[in-house]
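Sample log: Acrosin.
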Amino acid sequence: MILLCILILLALCRPAQGTCGQTCGLRPMGTTVGSTRVVGGTDVMPGTGAWAGIASVRCYWNPPVSVHVCGGTLVGAQWLLTAAHCFVNRTNPLSEWAIVLGATSLGQSGPDVEVRRIKRLVIHEKYTPQLEYNDVALLELDRPVRCRSSIQTACLPGPSVKVSDLKNCYIAGWGDRIVKSSGRDVLQQAKVQVVDKQLCNSSDWLQGYIYDFHVCAGQGGVGTCQGDSGGPLVCQDRHAGFFWQIGVTSWGVGCARPKRPAVSSSTQYYYNWIWSTMGRKPAPAVAPAPAPLPTYTAAPLQTVTPKPTQPCPFPREKLQQFFDLLKDILRYLKEKML
């Protein structure tokens, strides 16, 4: 009977091929080689399963040629999380946009790559252009995505996750520096430091432009740039191998300048909005109405205008501890019966 229970538990814990939401944020960063894009980033190698939740948001101005506009992350079988400003000045109808998932290179195709059209665009109702307040949007895809090793959903932190304690953080995207130094359109990743909000909002840094719905990350020489908007900022869970997506890349002052970290929209702050927009029951409230952090008098900054998921799986380490304990119990029972 105990053995039967173990087999059932193993079956339940095994990620279902083709089912989105049963696993999220579990893919490793993967092997990388040096590069100069994402500003201080490295290439994400194909076939590693790295950044399996990321997508390229593209516009087809002259079909069949597509142009990468922004990044995004899969948060449900039929939903993509991105930045609202990616669509604020759009002139093309949604029918001329496409979402590409499962690719690490913009020119990649094949069985591991899926392309979807946009059925519906939902921009946060309090989004403020130029100031970039509430810079989040959800894209409902025309049909569900089939998840596999190259396509997985992102893990979004709920109210119980202490985001400030998370370390080992990364950004990723297909954005570029102002002057291109590489002709390859390969997905880039970079390890970044999350900057304390009070410091980020100080007079030497971003001078009062940071609110509770923001997350600052990056430092001089490493950061996001144009084309990375809508992409993920992720941090590793403290006790397991998966990664939480804590931010959606929103804006910055230049690219990777000292004391000018990139600013992302906090996924934890918008957790309830994401759940309710996708038509699911929201979790308990994350925060009260938006309130700015202490501000400082300064000249206006020049800004660069260039997610609910299923609960994350039970950490593998804890499952391993459970099975090790179970084996000890079985061994003990066997010895008692002899």
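Observation: The chain has a mean pLDDT of 75.
Observation: Helices lie at 2-13, 197-200, 271-277, 316-337.
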